[in-house]
Amino acid sequence: MVLGSYKTAICARAADQDILAKSQDGGIVTQLFAFALEEGIIDGAVVAGPGDEPFKPEPIVATTRAELLEARGTRYTICPNMSMIKEATRSYGLDKVGIVGTPCQIQALRKAQLYPVGMRSVPDKIALALGIFCMENFPYQGLEAMVEDLCNVKMESAVKMDIGKGKFSVYTERGAVSQIPLKLTHKFEQGGCHVCLDYVANLADVSTGSVGTPDGWSTVFVRTKVGEDVWGKAIEAGYFETKDIADVKPGLDLVTKLANEKISKNQKTIEERAAFKNLRNPYL
Ligand code: FAD
Ligand code: SF4
Question: Mean pLDDT across the stretch 192-198?
Answer without folding.
Answer: 97
